[in-house]
Amino acid sequence: MAAETVTSKNMALAKAINESLRTALETDPKVLIMGEDVGKLGGVFRVTDGLQKDFGEERVIDTPLAESGIVGTAIGLALRGYRPVVEIQFDGFVFPAYDQIVTQLAKMHARSLGKVKLPVVIRIPYGGGIGAVEHHSESPEALFAHVAGLKVVSPSNSSDAYWMMQQAIQSDDPVIFFEPKRRYWDKGEVDTEAIPGQLHKARVVRPGSDLTLVAYGPMVKVCVEAAAAAEEEGKSLEVLDLRSMSPIDFDSVQTSVERTGRLVVVHEAPVFLGTGAEIAARITERCFYHLEAPVLRVGGYHAPYPPARLEEEYLPGLDRVLDAVDRSLAY
């Protein structure tokens, strides 16, 4: 009897993205990787480590420090039939490229009446928790989710990191791929032969019956920890990993809330006009007669990201999530 082929590996989230990029480069000669220090250095987080060595400087390209130029070049390459994967080195560095992304990348498909497709992936390490300096810990996902024509996603674990990157690269639409940098070193199982779920489908991480916690990216782990802590007090919390911020899988959120009657939305980004605001509004409209309490939101403060020594006070943690849970259950 032949031995079974082992396709599942335990790997860090950053390594899962590396493996996914490697698979894409091997599978499709039109896939290119571009960004600051992605080649010889392998990226500041080593996410692209070894790829230039194995695939050459013409496919893994070290660019100048010019984000607008990087994205503009990627747009031109996509128009010529390539599938560029662009790295923005840190979240706060994306704004020089914002005009290219919003004015050109997001609009070209509509402007050409569907004739032109722009299969560009823009990778952005985002969020805090690593003790970085200014402009290195932003959470700008709502800015991009607001823009029609862009898909916006964020994995929370290694398996999703691998498969969502594959799906993003294969998409004919531009995808903003937010990578939770403080989860880069968290390990998990990745089955490289699995059949992945839909890119924009939310996933129940932990079932529960008393309240729904919705999160994405770095906050999913915090919500799972909150659910475990609440269970010790006899509270059953369902944790839903949103995975996609545009489009949002409102149907899965609605299904969960109709069962639990309560919803708390958690994200690192500021609560004010954040992704949670749209979810709260939509679910209030859809589930008005099922809700036992107002939809509550937990997130960062409406203030510039603080110096590293204060970021633990800024970032929503276990206590702030559990406080919102208690307030919801008190209604």
UniProtKB/TrEMBL annotation:
<feature type="domain" description="Transketolase-like pyrimidine-binding">
    <location>
        <begin position="11"/>
        <end position="186"/>
    </location>
</feature>
<dbReference type="Pfam" id="PF02780">
    <property type="entry name" value="Transketolase_C"/>
</dbReference>
<dbReference type="GO" id="GO:0009083">
    <property type="term" value="P:branched-chain amino acid catabolic process"/>
</dbReference>
<dbReference type="InterPro" id="IPR009014">
    <property type="entry name" value="Transketo_C/PFOR_II"/>
</dbReference>
<dbReference type="GO" id="GO:0007584">
    <property type="term" value="P:response to nutrient"/>
</dbReference>
<dbReference type="GO" id="GO:0000287">
    <property type="term" value="F:magnesium ion binding"/>
</dbReference>
<keyword id="KW-0560">Oxidoreductase</keyword>
<dbReference type="Pfam" id="PF02779">
    <property type="entry name" value="Transket_pyr"/>
</dbReference>
<protein>
    <recommendedName>
        <fullName>3-methyl-2-oxobutanoate dehydrogenase (2-methylpropanoyl-transferring)</fullName>
        <ecNumber>1.2.4.4</ecNumber>
    </recommendedName>
</protein>
<dbReference type="GO" id="GO:0003863">
    <property type="term" value="F:branched-chain 2-oxo acid dehydrogenase activity"/>
</dbReference>
<dbReference type="InterPro" id="IPR033248">
    <property type="entry name" value="Transketolase_C"/>
</dbReference>
<dbReference type="InterPro" id="IPR029061">
    <property type="entry name" value="THDP-binding"/>
</dbReference>
<dbReference type="InterPro" id="IPR005475">
    <property type="entry name" value="Transketolase-like_Pyr-bd"/>
</dbReference>
